[in-house]
Specification:
The chain is α/β, with parallel strands linked by helices. The chain contains 9 helices and 13 strands. Strand 10 (about 205-215) and strand 11 (about 220-225) form a beta hairpin. The protein binds S-adenosylmethionine.
C-alpha cells in the first residue's frame, strides 16, 4: 500500500481513498445504521480488553482487518496505543472518523485480500464476522497467507466470526427462513431473511436481508453475505499458511467454545524461527 496509488480524498473519511479498491458495498448499505446494532458500548470495551490481554508484544504493532466504524480499534488504541486498520468501505471509514476522539488509529482504505501494509505486526485481528465476509475460500486463503506474512515470528492472528451451526439453529428446518429478534440493549428489532446455498465443493454461503426496526417503527435495511466458516475450516487454512492454532473461546470473558456458541474466537501464532526449525509449535 503506497501513497502513489492514492487517488482522492473523501469528504468525511479524513484520509486518501483509492478508486481501485474492490468493495462489496456492505458499508454503503449498513453504515447509516451499523452503530445502532453494533454499538460502541461496554461489549466493545470487553472485546478491546480481551485483545489487549492476549497481545504478545504491543511494541511490535497491531493491525485490524475490516475496522468498520472503529468499534473495537478505537477502545483498543486507548489501551495499547497505535493501531493500523484497513477497510474497503469509504462509508464505514467516514463513520469511524465521526467517532474518533484523538485515538491513534491509522485507518487505510484497502481490501485485505489483495494487499496489506508493507510491514510486520505483533498482532493482526479480524472480528465480528469480517473473515466470513470474504467471498470465497480461495480469497480467504489468500488473506490468511497475507496475514501470516505480515506477522513477526511469535506474532498472533485473532479471528472472531460466526459459528455456522448457529445459523442453522436460527433458521430451524426452514431455508429460506425469516426470524425476528428484539435487541433489548439497542431498543429495536432485527428481522433477518436468510437463505443458505451450497457450492459444489460443499461451502455454504448465508445471504440475508437484515431489516433493523427502531422502536418508533423507522426501518433500515441492507443485504449481507457470509461464507460460513467452521472453526476446523479456519484452522485448516491457517495451517496451510504456516500458522499454529492456540486459543479457542466463545466469548471475550473466556467462556469455552461449544456447538451452541453463536461465535468463536480463535488465535493462531506464527511460529518463531527456532520453533519452525525444531518443528515444534510455540
Ligand atoms: C461486520 S463489519 C465489522 C466492523 C468492525 N470490525 C466491528 O467489529 O464493528 C466488517 C467490516 O469489514 C469490511 N470488509 C469486509 N471485507 C473486507 C475486505 N476484503 N477488505 C477490507 N475490508 C473488508 C467491511 O467493509 C466492514 O466494514
Amino acid at each position: 500500500m503506497t501513497d502513489a496509488s492514492m487517488t482522492a480524498t473523501h469528504p468525511g473519511a479524513g484520509m486518501l481513498i483509492r478508486e481501485d479498491v474492490e468493495d462489496t458495498g456492505y458499508g454503503r448499505e449498513f453504515a447509516p445504521f451499523y452503530d445502532r446494532i453494533f454499538q460502541h458500548d461496554e461489549s466493545a470495551e470487553v472485546t478491546a480488553e480481551g485483545l489487549a490481554r492476549i497481545h504478545p508484544d504491543i511494541s511490535r504493532g497491531t493491525l485490524e482487518l475490516g475496522v468498520g466504524t472503529g468499534r473495537i480499534a478505537l477502545p483498543l488504541a486507548r489501551r495499547i496505543g497505535p493501531v493500523d486498520a484497513i477497510d474497503s468501505s469509504v462509508e464505514m471509514l467516514s463513520a469511524l472518523e465521526g467517532h474518533r476522539k484523538g485515538e491513534p488509529v491509522h485507518a487505510m482504505h484497502g481490501n485485505f485480500v489483495h494487499e496489506l501494509p508493507d510491514r510486520r505486526y505483533g498482532m493482526v485481528f479480524a472480528v465480528c464476522q469480517t473473515m466470513s465476509m470474504v467471498r470465497s475460500r480461495a480469497e480467504q486463503r489468500r488473506a490468511m497467507h497475507r496475514v501470516a506474512q505480515a506477522l513477526v515470528p511469535g506474532g498472533i492472528f485473532v479471528v472472531e466470526t460466526g459459528n455456522p451451526l448457529q445459523v442453522h439453529t436460527l433458521m430451524g428446518d426452514r431455508n429460506p427462513a425469516v426470524t425476528t429478534v428484539p435487541l433489548e440493549a439497542q431498543g429495536g428489532w432485527l428481522t433477518t431473511y436468510s437463505h443458505v446455498t451450497e457450492s459444489e465443493a460443499g461451502d455454504q454461503t448465508w445471504r440475508c436481508r437484515q431489516v433493523w426496526i427502531e422502536s418508533d417503527g423507522t426501518l433500515h435495511t441492507g443485504i449481507e453475505q457470509s461464507l460460513l466458516t467452521p472453526v476446523e475450516v479456519m484452522d485448516r487454512m491457517a495451517a496451510e499458511a504456516g500458522l499454529v492454532p492456540e486459543l479457542l473461546f466463545a466469548t471475550w470473558t473466556g467462556t469455552p467454545y461449544g456447538d451452541e456458541a453463536p461465535l468463536y474466537i480463535r488465535s493462531y501464532r506464527r511460529p518463531t524461527e527456532s520453533a519452525s526449525r525444531e518443528g515444534t509449535p510455540r
